[in-house]
C-alpha cells in the first residue's frame, strides 16, 4: 500500500545537511539565525530551529552548498513548525515562494549527485 504522503510530493527529497541562515522577511537581516537543513527539494526544505515559527511567516534564506561558491538566496513560507524537544528545538517545514533558474540548477545538481550516491 502506498503512503499518501509520498503520493502528494511533487519533488524528490534530498537528505543533505547544508548550512543555512534565515530571518523573517521585512525584518533586519542583521539579526538572523543559523541552522542546518534536514532535507531539501525543488519545492522547499525542512530544517531545525531554536524557536517556534508561526505558520505563514515568510523567511529570507541563505543556503550554502558545495555546488556553488556563492550563497543561494531563497524565500519561503513556513507551512509548519513542530516542537521536537520541548521549548528547545523545532522542526520547520517551509515551501519556497519563487525559485530563480540559477537556484533550480543547483537543486537539480544536488538531486543528480544524491541519486548517484544511492546507486
Question: What would you say about this model in short?
Answer:
The protein has 119 residues and is of the alpha+beta class.
Write the layout of secondary structure elements.
Layout: H1 4-8, E1 19-24, E2 33-40, E3 44-49, E4 58-64, E5 72-85, E6 89-96, H2 101-118
Antiparallel strand pairs: 1-2, 1-4, 2-3, 3-6, 4-5, 5-6
Structure report:
The structure is a single chain. The two termini are 24 Å apart. Helix content is 19%, strand content 41%. The chain is of the alpha+beta class and 119 residues long. The protein has one domain (15-118): predicted glycosyltransferase like domains (Thrombin, subunit H, Beta Barrel). Strands 1-2-3-6-5-4 form a six-stranded antiparallel beta barrel. It contains two helices and six strands. A hairpin with an 8-residue loop joins β1 (19-24) and β2.
CATH class: Mainly Beta
Would you identify the CATH architecture?
A: Beta Barrel
What amount of the residues lies in strands? 35-45%
* Number of β-strand runs: 6
Helix content: 10-25%
Low-confidence stretches: none
Count of DSSP helices?
2
Q: State the CATH topology.
A: Thrombin, subunit H
| CA distance, first residue to last residue | 24 Å
- According to CATH, the homologous superfamily is predicted glycosyltransferase like domains
Structural class: alpha+beta
What are the secondary-structure elements, in order, as H or E? HEEEEEEH
Report the radius of gyration as a whole number of Å: 14 Å
What characterizes the major β-sheet? Answer: 6 strands, antiparallel, barrel
Strand order, main sheet: write it out.
Answer: 1-2-3-6-5-4
Amino acid at each position: 500500500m502506498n503512503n499518501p504522503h509520498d503520493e502528494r510530493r511533487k519533488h524528490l527529497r534530498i537528505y543533505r545537511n547544508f548550512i543555512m541562515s534565515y530571518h523573517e522577511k521585512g525584518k533586519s537581516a542583521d539579526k538572523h539565525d543559523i541552522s542546518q537543513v534536514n532535507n531539501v527539494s525543488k519545492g522547499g526544505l525542512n530544517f531545525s530551529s531554536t524557536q517556534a515559527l508561526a505558520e505563514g511567516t515568510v523567511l529570507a534564506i541563505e543556503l550554502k552548498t558545495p555546488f556553488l561558491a556563492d550563497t543561494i538566496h531563497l524565500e519561503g513560507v513556513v507551512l509548519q513548525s513542530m516542537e521536537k524537544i520541548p521549548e528547545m528545538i523545532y522542526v520547520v517545514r517551509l515551501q519556497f515562494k519563487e525559485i530563480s533558474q540559477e537556484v533550480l540548477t543547483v537543486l537539480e545538481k544536488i538531486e543528480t549527485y544524491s541519486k548517484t550516491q544511492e546507486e
